[in-house]
Amino acid sequence: MVERFHDAGRKVTPQRVAVVEIICSSTTHPTADMVFADAHRRLRVISQRTVYQVLTDLCDLGEIQCLNIGSGAARFDPNNDRHQHLLCDRCGQLIDIYLDLDGLLDESFEGFRASHADVVLRGTCRTCADDRGARRRAPSRADSH
Fold it and tell me: Taking CA 23 as the corner, what is the angle to CA 85 and CA 45, rounded to the nearest 5 degrees?
C-alpha cells in the first residue's frame, strides 16, 4: 500500500505509513476513529483529518474497502478478495466469510445484471452467545439464600 502512494505521486509520510500499518494489521474492520486512536498512540503528530484523508486515498487507490453496513460509522477493510461479512449485533464484531455467490451474480433480475453483492449476515457471535448463556446459568442472589 505504501508503494501505491509513491506510485500515485503522493508523499510517503510517517503518518501515512502508520495508517497503512494499522489497517494492514487489523482484523477488526476499524472505523476511522479507531484508526486515529491507534495512530495517535503510535505517533503523536497526527490529526484526525490526516487519518480520514489517508483512508479516503487508500479507498480511491483500491487498496481498502469502505464498508457502510448500517450500524454507525463506516468500517475499513484491507481484504479486497470477494467476500461477505458476519456482524454481531451485540458487540459489533465484523468477520470476513466467503460465500459462493457467482451463480447469483450470473442471473439477470428484471433485466438488471448485478456486478457484485455486499452481503452482511447479522446475528450473535460465539463470544456473545457464550456470555449470554453463562449469565443465564449463573445463580441469582435468591438462589444463594
Answer: 145
Polymer length of the chain: 145
- By three-state DSSP, how is residue 46 classified? coil
- The torsion angles phi and psi of 94, rounded to 5 degrees, stand at -120, 125
- Give the residue carrying C-alpha cell 480520514: 52
CA angle at 36 for the pair 23 and 128, rounded to the nearest 5°:
70
pLDDT in tens, 29-72: 999 999 999 999 999 899 999 999 999 999 999 999 999 988 78
Q: Residue 47: which residues within 8 A CB-CB, separation 6 or more?
A: none
CATH 3.30.1490.190 intervals, the chain:
81-139
Stated pTM of the model? 0.80
CATH superfamily of the domain spanning 81-139? Ferric-uptake regulator, C-terminal dimerisarion domain (3.30.1490.190)
